[in-house]
Amino acid sequence: MQAWDVVIIGGSIASLRAAIAASDEGATVTVLSSSPSSAFVDDGMSCGLAASSGETDSSEHAADTRRVGADLCETDIVAASTNSAVHHLAELERWGLNLRRDRNGTPHLGKLPGQSNPRTASTGDSTLREVRSILEEQCIKRNIPRRGDTEVLNIVMNGGRASGLIALDIQSGEIFGVQAKSILLAGSGFQSAWNGDGIAMGTAASLALRSNIPLADLEFTSMHPLTVADTSLCLPLDVLGAGGIVNGSDGQPLSTEDGPDALAHTIIATGGASLDLTAISRTASPWFSGVTKSLSSRCGIDCTIESIPLMPIVGPTIGGIPIDASGQAINGTWNNPLPGLFAAGDAACSGLHGAALNSGDHLLGALTSGATAGTSAAIHAGSSKHSASSAISIALSEAHHSHDSMLTEAGADGASYGVIQSSLASTMRAHMGVERNAAGLSSAAAIIQTLQETTMGISDTSPVMNTEMVSMIRTQGLLSVASAAVSAALAREESRGTHIRTDHPDTDPKLAQHSLSGSDGTVANLALRN
Fold first, then answer.
1. CA 90 to CA 107: how far, in whole Å?
2. Which structural domains are found in the chain, ordered by start?
3. What φ, ψ does residue 286 adopt, rounded to 5°?
4. 283 phi and psi, to 5 degrees?
5. CA 522, 331, 341 angle in degrees (round to 5)?
6. What are phi and psi of 377, to 5 degrees?
7. Is the pLDDT at 515 greater than 80, yes or no?
8. Largest separation between any pair of C-alpha atoms in the chain
């Protein structure tokens, strides 16, 4: 049985930053990802990094984050994250990130939706790709092994402590157990529940629910305002900091003051909008050549002379595993820590974003939460011993039995996972979209329950490279997370941030609470720590 100090689950930017931090703290670290290690797996980020390097201090950055987050942010988390933003930007530069620069040689800062001052540094349309490449290089320099094509099936909790996990090697079909002093969940959100694209399937959230760990704030989902209509092509918000303008149906520029989600909601409410990129300067345009090529090849649009039709789709989800300031997972129902279990990035609910994402804070949150949780996981591992080998062996036997039963009972008569995912996406878009009400949410809950009870069929009965079975497992997990999200949305009767209830009046922001959703669909509330 393999044994590590820290095992990180997920292939996101947050997971890579966590691996670096844990390794630098002296821990033995490995990263397990369901995608191939060479695949481009991200957190669905829409722009560069927000940092107050052009301001006196980070106070206005923090104020913007809290304002856009609709007063559901954790003040201490916001302060710590915004204070560290310049440090993370400098660190990325030191590791080789080639940022856009102004005439003085300092990083070019774009003013994006929700920002009171120019604050977002980027490499144009390649920021996410380049940041990921740099972090991968740092992992290689530290000899951190990253194992792809690995589907984690269960976390082994023993006496309330995370002690190991059970995973499936997708290529070989082998199911194996791993001992770990610390486990860190840093996978994607669950926006595939709306988009039906199979990219962000909420693996971390579903693992938490299987371990009876309540999730927080699942009702809050961001929208990507710069999505080309009738496609899934999302353009980086950074084009707005380089001269791009979003015009409404009347041809007048739309306000971006209240953040990207508010802009997306306006576009949807008015039936669409258009993006004008013709004002981007000749010096800035090379940084967005990828956008130009994608619009031309995928949409047949020449953005140098044509406007781009927009219709937003769901972007990264905000809720996840509740964590404290150190990145350690907590059982939100009792506010008790879960020793050995940590979370970061889209897998976590840190309190940074509140009820809506602000521009540039998504990448910032991934870097800060990853670094913090990775360090904490390593420190915890340094004072712990490997344990629960018998519990892991029992869980491994149960996983083998479940896996064998799944293959034995497999048949082509059931519904395909693709049909289930498509039905789920239609339901979530219809009833968990921009505006919600009790009747629609109740209907969504009933439909999702029916989908959970529907038998899924697979035609491949081989344990080797059985992608059908893996997709079925992920779909089952996504259904459980979507069910919890609908329950959370039904329980929150107030409108706040990205959660708009048409059947109830707004509530005083001072009474805001974080919602907690369990695997059984029950929802409780956790008062704000601030």
1. 10
2. 2-221+316-390 (3.50.50.60), 227-311 (3.90.700.10), 399-527 (1.20.58.100)
3. -60, -25
4. -75, -30
5. 130
6. -65, -40
7. no
8. 67
Instruction: Give the pLDDT of residue 442.
Output: 98
The two three-digit tokens of residue 318, written as one number: 């905000």
6, 115 in Cβ contact below 8 A?
A: no
Would you tell me how many other CB atoms lie within 10 Å of the CB of residue 311? 16
Give the residues across from 332 on adjacent strands: none
Look at residue 518 in the predicted model and tell me its pLDDT.
74
**Torsion sign across C-alpha atoms 364, 370, 373, 376:** negative
In the numeric block, the tokens 């009767």 are attached to 493
User: Is the alpha carbon torsion for 283, 285, 287, 289 positive or negative?
Assistant: negative
DSSP state of 496: B
Contact 70, 265 (CB under 8 A): no
DSSP string, 197-240: SSS---HHHHHHHHTTPPEE-TT-EEEETTBBTTS--BPPGGGG
Tokens of 101: 């620069």
174-222 pLDDT, tens digit per residue, is 999 999 999 999 999 999 999 999 999 999 999 999 999 999 999 999 9
- Among 357, 346, 353, 188, which residue's Cα sits nearest to residue 265? 357
SS3 content of the chain, % helix, strand, coil (to 5): 40, 20, 40
Distance CA 254, CA 248 (A): 6
pLDDT recorded at residue 78:
98
Q: Which of 379, 366, 369 is nearest to 339 (CA)?
A: 379
Amino acid at 195: N
In this structure, the chain runs to a length of 530
Q: How far apart are CA 498 and CA 314, in angstroms?
A: 11
- The model carries a pTM of 0.95
Name residue 276's amino acid. D
pLDDT score recorded for residue 529: 42
